Amino acid sequence: MKITKLIFATCLVSGLQPLLSPSAAFAGLVNASLEQGKTALDGNVTFSDLAAGDNAGITYRRVPSPRNAIFDALKQQPIYTFQDILTTPWKARGAPGVAILDFDGDHDLDIYVTNGPGANNSLYSNQLQETGQVKFLDLASSAGVAAFNQDSSGVAYGDIDNDSDLDLLVLGTGQPNQLFENQGDGTFIDITETSSIGGGSKYSTSASMGDVNGDGLLDIVIANSYTNWDDQIPIAREPFARNEHNQLFLNTGNNVFVDVSNSSGITNLAGFPEEAAGSASITWAIAMVDYDLDGDLDIVHADDQAAFPNAEQGGVDRGLIHILNNDGTGHFTDVTVEANTNQTGAWMGLSFGDLNSDGNMDIFASNLGDYALNRPVPAGLVASRWFLGEADGSFTDPGVGELVTTPFGWGTSTTDYDNDGDTDIIFHGALDFGRFVDASNPGVILENDGAGNFTYDANALATSTNHIRRNVHGVAVGDLNHDGFSDIVSVSNFDFPEPIPLQPYSVTYGSPFDETALFVPTFVPTENPGELVWSGLELPDGTLSVEINSGDNGNGWVEVQGIGTVGLTPDGHVNRDGIGAVFFFTPDNGQTVMQPILGGSSYASQDSLAANFGLGSSLQGTLEVLWPGGVRNRLYNVRNFERLFFPEIPCSFDGYWSNRLEYETCVDTALTDLFNTGVLPRQQVSRFFESAIRAFNESQTVPEPSTILGLGIFLGLGYLSRKHDR
Fold first, then answer.
1. Which sequence spans correspond to the domains of the chain?
2. Residues forming beta bridges with residue 452, ordered by sequence position
3. What is the pLDDT of residues 171-228, one digit of tens each?
4. SS3 state at 702
5. How many whole angstroms separate alpha carbon 140 and alpha carbon 113?
6. What is the CA radius of gyration of the chain?
7. Could you report how far apart the first and last alpha carbons of the chain are, in Å?
8. 355, 330 contact by CB (below 8 A)
9. Burial category of 276 from C-beta neighbours within 10 Å (exposed 0-12, middle 13-18, buried 19 and up)
10. CB count, 10 Å around CB of 399?
11. Those residues with Cβ within 8 angstroms of residue 360's Cβ, 6 or more apart along the chain or in another chain
12. What pLDDT is recorded for position 31?
């Protein structure tokens, strides 16, 4: 094996060729692959809901929040008026979120879902490794994460102490958030008080973890809404009055956090008029993501315009998609206006990926949808939509194309659900408006044609759970059965039984969603104008849906999970789970796609930390990663059906190196450390080393002949004595 390596390395030295600049090299792969065209099979997968039967072990029911008693009292009034809408509680049945994670380190994916006070949150342990079947045991109570007394909303997770297990953050509604430290044995302890992460008693909705200052520790950003959900006055009458600023907590080590919300700049929001300067917005979704691919984590949050007119209508723009740009040290500037995401909406959920395969990060944001307005408006006015990233960090809104408009949306994920080599969009959602309940979203899967044009795949969920009858909030994706295809988990705060009739909205748009644009009246008109009475609608508790992808269209796949090497190598500085990294994959004869690894996004939810890439009909491809901090690594010849761990090698192939010897020494040292600590086996060490050298060669110009000779001597005398090759 030593001689083979030496021959390989010598050939690399003698075969150096002038190539593209570092920034253009990978773009060349993108452009070349686009010219090949798509040969994969689009769509042709379906989903089935394991939780719909009795055999999967899913017994979750979302109990109402205490404020539901206010709504029950309103229903018993002889007359319900439009004035009563203001005093109708917001999300009376709760605001549940869901996370897909491997909490016990057994290499299958588990599910955590939040609940209301007086009911345990659920931690469903996947029994795939133990039994070979996707069945679940609810271990929340024995694991110590039941949060029985909390009105829980969103959830996020990550390894906050870099001890190689996942810790859990559970948000509260009008109660402190709770942080649970994983003990590494399948149990957790509540460290909320000692960590200083509780955040007061705000009405938190979503959270995201990521390292904002480059110290290798996961920090936490929390999205807040408005104080006291017992009424909807801040949504319909008094803007800004009770809105709560979002919060950023900096991890100082030893599981202790400090609130840097004001000093970090995240509370200085742009886009407001002078009289509203310094105000907070109502934020439903938030994510830490490197949107401009510069190696640091920025913050994106989705805010709600609510029932107030925007500037074009004579009011104030308040419901924007805010882009907070990180200067690399954890200080943020709101560049929303410059980024061109200052478009008003009732933005609810966020997901990210390269939708049109141009090498830039794009944003998908779920929205109110035109149907819920129930009056004629320009088609697409408040549609969920995608914003296409440009090289300068700005975004363009291409509209929703042949979809014309979209239904209501909360939770969302961007994933290649059919493994055809492009990034598709999933979003679910519904909302109780008080007077009526929107039921316009059948569970939307938007299939990408590879160029950022989307069509609605109505067949994918046609034989699964009827999401029209679920008031879905949280959505997350991950491969629960290890077949290489993404599965979907969603949670509702209440459902509609089949006997309850659904009514069509009075407006249509010529959209594929017209047929499912439905609602349920909670109150119905009387003979007296403006007076309504309760319709008698009673709603059962919410449910968890676990939809398994059939994965039977023949398309290939690759799964990769990042490993940060802070504490494992002297120069490693990425958190242990690689949260914040951006993976790029280029199948042979395919186009480059990207997937950021997020510590929370969607609405109140978090996807699996593994990146799944579809290969279509290709047999292998090239994998590249941009780590937090800006280091780039690359791995060649990643094969179809391969599941691998990709460690941070703190030596960027496109960095500024005085010579190749310096770069190779860096790689060699890092890989030796990873071998000695048991992170990589010898075979993988060799593979990553060879790819690192090739990536360096392909990003550099031809060295001088003397350099080649020197390298050859070095390789001949030194390479064979490496520790990991003994």
1. 1-17+663-726, 47-549
2. none
3. 999 999 999 999 999 999 999 999 999 989 999 999 999 999 999 999 999 999 999 9
4. coil
5. 10
6. 26
7. 10
8. no
9. middle
10. 13
11. 293, 354, 388, 389, 390, 391
12. 41
Q: What is the pLDDT of residue 22?
A: 32
Minimum mean pLDDT range among 164-168, 205-209, 262-266, 588-592: 588-592
Residue 337 CA to residue 347 CA, distance in Å, equals 16
**What is 47-549's CATH superfamily?**
YVTN repeat-like/Quinoprotein amine dehydrogenase (2.130.10.10)
Nearest to 96 by CA among 126, 67, 61: 61
The Cα–Cα gap between 122 and 110 comes to 10
* Lateral strand order in the sheet of 642-647: 611-616, 556-563, 642-647
> Which of 221, 312, 318, 323 has its CA nearest to residue 279?
318
What does the block give as tokens for 640? Answer: 């179809």
Q: How many CB atoms lie within 10 A of CB 261?
A: 18
Across 1-15, 103-117, 387-401, 483-497, least confident range: 1-15
* Burial per residue of 485-508, b for 16 or more beta-carbon CB atoms within 10 angstroms, e otherwise: bbbbbbbbbbbbeeebebeebebb
Q: Which two tokens stand for residue 603?
A: 């609405």
Helix, strand, or coil here: 393? Answer: coil
Q: Which residues contact 54 (CB under 8 A, 6 or more apart)?
A: none
Question: Please, which residues have CB within 8 angstroms of residue 403's CB and are 6 or more apart in sequence?
Answer: 383, 446, 454, 455, 456, 511, 512, 513
Q: What is the number of alpha carbons within 13 Å of residue 411 lying toward its C-beta? A: 32
Asked whether the predicted pLDDT for residue 363 surpasses 90, the reply is: yes
Contact partners, residue 518, CB within 8 Å, separation at least 6: 439, 440, 468, 502, 503, 504, 505
- CA-to-CA distance for 203 and 200, rounded, in angstroms? 9
Q: HEC states along 245-268?
A: CCEEEEECCCCCEEECHHHHCCCC
Query: pTM of the prediction?
Result: 0.92
